[in-house]
Each structure stands twice: as structure tokens, then as C-alpha cells.
Amino acid sequence: MKQFLTGVLALLLLAGCGSVPVTGRTQLQMVSEQQEIKMGLTSFREILGKEKLSADPVLNERVQRIGKRIAAATGRTDYQWEFKVIDNDKMLNAFCLPGGKVAVYTGLLPVAQDDAGLAAVIAHEVAHAIARHGGERLSQEVVVAGLSVATVVAMQDSPNRDLYAGLLGAGAAVGFLLPYSRLHESEADRMGMIYMAKAGFDPRAALALWQRMAVAAKGKSRPPEWLSTHPADETRIKEIERWLPEALSHYRPVGQ
């Protein structure tokens, strides 16, 4: 009986496997992409209802212009892309929920500095959605917690609603700090550099961005890398340097 159950579980996991674009990594996907997108839209609408959106037309145009170029580079024309700016100067954050729902906090803009730096931020977040990292984490929750997919998708009670929004990638916006794993972060770095390069932004700006982020994080308490869900700054920068030649092979400056 034990072997039978193990075999059934193996078949279930195999049936729920997907593949990440660019990297080709096999991932667990028990939640359909359409279910994931529907949940992402619900969470995005709830977050925008709670947060203060920027009314700066220049800033909004900038984020939308850069975001649309990144989105086009992904090839996901079936996504209903949205790009919003949240007016919060204390939050060095951005996120992208399933289906292409992107938000950038104003606190991140001084670190991003220019259009290329902002492109690196947006491309990294967009890569999380393209790789379906949120759906992968939801699927892990389904398996580990022994829940049904229908239960997770329904999000019937408010505590779980915020939890699942956090798993999808909303992070601090819903009161749950649920950062992606080191694997997901590294994957988004690599994919994001390729997308920004294809969109006509110099991927070397991603290296400069994370170097500035490392400076901004100095003095803040962090766990050692092996206890953290994010790569250490030094590790991240070394990986980005290693992936730069791949990204640069896709780079064609606008107008060339």
C-alpha cells in the first residue's frame, strides 16, 4: 500500500509539472495558469484599493512606457499588462502579480536612478510572473498543507486571502513578507536581464542597480545567506556578472 500511495503521489506531481521559459527548469504547477491569473487580478485590485497611487503624470508615463517595452519583449501578448506607481517613499519595493499586474513603489526610484535602472527593476518583477513563480509557490502550499487546488483558489477567508496574495508575489503590500526563494530570485535576475536587453535597455544597468541596492542595504540586519530566501548581495552580483554575456547577446539599442 505504501508503494502504491508513493506511486500515485509521484504520478500526481509529474502531471503537475511545468517548464520555466529561458532556463528550462522543471517546476511543480498544480494550479492552472488561468486560475493563477484570476487570483493575481483579485489581489491586485485589493492592493490598489488600499494603497495610495501616484498622481504624477510624468512618473506614471515613464513607468508605463518602460513597462510596455519590457512586456513586449516577453512575447506574452495574452497577458493584460498593467503598470501602476504606488506613492510610498519609504518602501524600496516593486512586484508583479500573475497575468502581468505590475506596481512600483516611489521609494525605489532614487535607487533605480535612470530609465535603464528602472527597466532592470520592472524586468526582474515581470520575470517572476513569466516564470510563474507565484503559481509554483501556491502549488507547493497545496502539496505541503494537503489542501485542494479549489480551496486555495477560492481564498474564502480573509487571513488566507492575504497569505495567498503574498505567495503570488504581493509581499508587504498585503502585510505578508513572503519573498521568493533564492532559486526564484536568481532565475528572475537572469530572465529579467534578457527581457530588458531585448527591449533595448543595456543589461549592464542591472549589475549597477544591484550594486546600488547592496549599498542601500548596508547596516540593515540580515540573516546569513544559508538562512535567507534571497541571495547575498555578493552572490547576486557575481551571478549577474556571469549572466551578462548571455543578456548582452540579446541587446540591440533602440534605433539600431
What does this structure look like?
The chain is 58% helix and 8% strand. By secondary structure, the protein is mainly α. It has a domain of 155 residues. The strands form two sheets. A three-stranded mixed β-sheet has the order 3-5-4. The chain has a two-stranded antiparallel ribbon with strand order 1-2. Strand 1 and strand 2 form a beta hairpin. Helix 2 crosses helix 8. It is globular and about 45 Å long. The chain starts with a helix and ends in an 8-residue tail after the last helix. The N terminus is likely disordered.
Report Rg: 18 Å
Oligomer: single chain
- Work out the number of β strands: 5
Mean pLDDT over the full residue set? 82
Largest sheet: 3 strands, mixed
Class inferred from helices and paired strands: mainly alpha
Uncertain regions spanning at least 5 consecutive residues: 1-15, 172-178, 223-229
* Structural shape: globular
Helix content: 55-70%
Strand order of the largest sheet: 3-5-4
Report how far apart the termini are. 64 Å
Spell out the helices and strands N to C.
HEEHHEEEHHHHHHHH
Strand content: 5-15%
Helical segment count: 11
Please write out the topology.
Blueprint lengths: L1 H14 L1 E3 L6 E3 L4 H18 L6 H18 L7 E5 L7 E4 L3 E5 L3 H4 L2 H16 L2 H13 L3 H6 L3 H13 L11 H17 L5 H13 L16 H16 L8
Parallel strand pairs: 3-5
Antiparallel strand pairs: 1-2, 4-5
